[in-house]
Amino acid sequence: MLDSNAEELEHVKKQAEKWSGSSKASWAAIHCDLSKRDDIKTAVNTVKENFDGKLDLLINNAFPTTLSMSEDRRMEAEGDAIEQEWDVKIAIGLTAP
After folding, report:
1. Residue 9 CA from chain centroid, whole number
2. Residue 92 gets which letter from DSSP?
3. Closest alpha carbon to 30 in 1, 8, 67
4. pTM to 2 decimals?
């Protein structure tokens, strides 16, 4: 489990420890900012060291955004800004090699 927010990572780690209970599953919580290559390299090395260099499951759920929704902000009100941001994120996250 990777997260750039150390506080949230610790919170989720505690929840995962409760949920995993006596499970034989192995996992790790690693502080990592996916926009920083050095953080990524460190995370990969940690995985290599702790899991014999292999993963059985990987869920990539990282998707940075500069806009956020709240009760005061509606997607319709943001219009083109949200669409432009979406296009950029898709181009970077899915299209780029």
Report:
1. 10
2. I
3. 1
4. 0.60
